[in-house]
# Entry
Amino acid sequence: MKQVDRNTMVLGMALVVLALGGCHSMKLELVDASVQKPSNVAVYFSMDDSKGEPVPGVEASQFKIYEDGQLISEYESKQTILNPEVAIERYTLLLLDMSGSVVDSGQVPQVQEAVGAFLENIDANEKIAIYAFDGRKEIQPIAKFGMREAALERRNELLSSYEPKDPSTNLNGAVIEAVAELDKAKEKSKVPLRFGTLVIFTDGTDRAHRATSDEAMNALEENDVTTFVIGLGGEVDSAQMEKYGKDGFILAENTDAIDEAFKEMAEKINAHALRYYLLSYCSPSRAGNHELTIEVEANEQRGRLRYEFEAEGFEPECDPTDAPKFEIPDEADRQPETNHRFRFGQGHDDEDDQANDENGNGKKKKKKKASNSDTPPAVEY
# Structure
């Protein structure tokens, strides 16, 4: 099937989160959309409740689909929820503090056991890599992306032979290096939507001063990395770790709590992934520009999102289970934020974002062309 040109098709996209009928509102955030012939429309979005918690398990029949304000029957739309793995890959990098304070204190066996528990509990669709850091500038690969099964087989010896070459703690620098590794892995991917997650384990603060905490935060924010932190003991700078772990921070009071902390973190990452939906349907439109509205009610809360598309040349014989063809950005047009996550209606002033009118609807503004990045070759996996 020929994909409709996205540059002409996407007239405007907007996230609209509304309270309907007096209920608390859910937040639906559009990530990307695919519109292709014969008449397939698919939207990939996240859904959180009014407290910011993921809303998993919603079925296709719970969504109401409107075009230009007219409800489309389920019989006509054939709406379905697709497995997102057809167009999406998720990369999680586990970054372990193996500085002198961890290794010399005899905590390695507990950390090693906890890493094994993490690997067993994390969703099978996550691509996993494990890196360690001490006082050196470079982070050290324990298991690169694509070595998950091998890492599980070696779970009882993954870290046993690790010896820090520099007993200091290059935490800030390690975060920057880890973000770069995530970026390289995502650049290697052949699917259009790639997401990076960083899980940091540390028992202290940065002592090496190779990089500042602001530089590390900039790396996380510029690359839109989902970040979780597991802290160990009383020397952890909890305030700074909560900044790094913007998506979740767990403090293990002692070594006996490490295993449970890693298991809990795996569950958090799994729940984070379950907030995403890939909803596909067959449009009855055959020409013109149209406003798609998706409404949903779950757990006594309601939410809505809108998206505009062009249906020129649409025909019958649509199969909503066909894999959507999200656009793979050209290297010349790829923004530094390589999670490729569109954020609409957030009130940013940048020209790459949407401008909101007085009704809260997004208006597409012209994008600036990004320069080519100097990212080194991606890791092999």
Q: What stands out?
A: The longest helix spans residues 171-188.
